[in-house]
Amino acid sequence: MYRAVNSKRPVNLDLTTIQFPLPALTSIAHRITGVILFVGLIFAFWALDKSLSSPEGFLAVRDTLANNILAKLIAWGLLSALAFHFVAGIKHMLMDAGYGVTLEGGVKKAQATVVISAVLIILAGVWVW
After folding, report:
1. Lowest mean pLDDT: which of 1-10, 62-71, 119-128?
2. Pairwise CA distance, residues 92 & 116, whole Å
3. Which residue of 72, 73, 83, 90 sits 20 to 30 Å from the alpha carbon of 40, by its own alpha carbon?
4. What is the DSSP string of 66-117?
5. Domain containing 84 — which CATH number?
6. What does DSSP assign to residue 7?
7. Could you give the CA distance from residue 120 to residue 62 in angstroms, rounded to a whole number?
8. Cα–Cα distance for residue pair 71/62, rounded to 1 Å
9. What is the dihedral angle through the alpha carbons of 55, 60, 65, 67, rounded to the nearest 10 degrees?
10. Residue 42 lies in a domain
């Protein structure tokens, strides 16, 4: 028979009240940006196929990306997701290699991930707009 070790322990199932540490938030964001990139491949492959189909298709994609605000937002969103996912992936590779696996190292790497990603996202926004 299963018996709880401490049956008087409170159980909190409301995730909105939990304060996640920064490394946890960056890990969750890394997963979310992976999903965004996977879904965004639909738009990227469509634009690639259209632009390679003919010179007119290339001009249509170029004009769409140059003049359509929604297309620019999608492009910036995909570049932003790619930037964060790439930086967080490097962080995970460093952890897999054994660098900064302490609590303090994890927090510092998470902070660096946020700062570097923010700079890359701003640069992507400047480039797209």
Report:
1. 1-10
2. 15
3. 90
4. HH-HHHHHHHHHHHHHHHHHHHHHHHHHHHHTTSS-SHHHHHHHHHHHHHHH
5. 1.20.1300.10
6. T
7. 23
8. 10
9. 130
10. yes
85 carries a ligand binding annotation: yes
- How many domains is the chain built from? 1
57-82 per-position pLDDT tens digit = 999 999 999 999 999 999 999 999 99
Span 93-119, pLDDT tens digits: 999 999 988 999 999 999 999 999 999
Tell me which residue range forms the domain holding 49: 29-128
pLDDT score, position 116: 98
Which pTM does this prediction carry? 0.83
Identify whether 86 is part of a domain: yes
User: Phi, psi (5° rounding) for residue 87?
Assistant: -65, -45
- Of 18, 22, 19, nearest to 105 by C-alpha is 22
SS3 8: coil
